[in-house]
Amino acid sequence: MKKFTLIAAFIFGVTHFASAQLIPNFQFGAKAGVNLSSFSFSNNNFDGANRAGYLGGFWARVGGLGFHFQPELYLTGKNVKIEQEVGGVTAVNNVKFTSIDVPLLVGTKVGAFGFGGRFYTGPLISFKINDDQSFGNAVGNAVTLTDVKNQNFAWQLGAGVDIRDLSIDLRYEYGLTKQTYNEGNSKARINLFNLTLAYKIFSM
Q1: Which residues are registered as beta bridge partners of 55?
Q2: Residue 105 has what pLDDT?
């Protein structure tokens, strides 16, 4: 919680300073939504089924001259099911991650008078809070994640629609950090889609 508070204070301070000193527009709001996570594996011996998760947190936006910078801070739950056939038996590992995610996005907007569309992209850093792995079939450690890193990096690409104080966003997140599994012999990336509803609390 202390780390979450420090990150939130830093992002709010930087964006508020930029809006007050350099850029004529500043907005701040809250958001919540769902995600669909999956693993992309380095070999074909495993299957990663998509599973739904959640996210919720805050966003800020500073911009002018047709462009904006949008840092965000939210809590994310990511769920993935990993399966492997071993001797005619399907080994299953249900993996749940909880993390604090910080996207740093750059984008542009089309439209006016509170209506329009936005397009943006940028890096994301994820701070793992915890992970939980539960096994449907105990077939050794074949589908165990052996090195779930505390900090992970990804790249986001997405678009959104603004309707007055509400925004609907759809994004794709490509994992840049590789996780190890199968006793360290293979690698996997976490990729996901997320759909969120955001509300603008205030602007200046």
Answers
A1: 33, 76
A2: 97
* pLDDT over 70 at 158, yes or no: yes
Extended beta strands in the chain, E state: 25-41, 47-64, 67-86, 89-112, 115-135, 145-147, 151-163, 166-175, 178-181, 186-203
Query: 85-94, 111-120, 150-159 — which one is most confidently predicted on average?
Result: 150-159
* Residue 72 or 90, more confident: 72
Which amino acid makes up residue 189? R
Question: How far apart are the C-alpha atoms of 151 and 11, rounded to whole Å?
Answer: 18
Domain range for 71 is 2-203
The total of structural domains in the chain comes to: 1
- Give the pLDDT confidence score for residue 61 in this predicted structure: 92
| Nearest one of 93, 98, 99 to 183, comparing CA atoms | 93
Q: What is the pLDDT of residue 66?
A: 76
As a whole number of Å, the end-to-end CA separation of the chain is 29
Instruction: Report CA 85 to chain centroid distance, whole Å.
Output: 30
Question: What is the domain-level CATH number for residue 51?
Answer: 2.40.160.20
Q: Which two tokens stand for residue 31?
A: 């958001």
Helix residue spans in the chain (DSSP H): 2-21
Tokens of 29: 């709001």
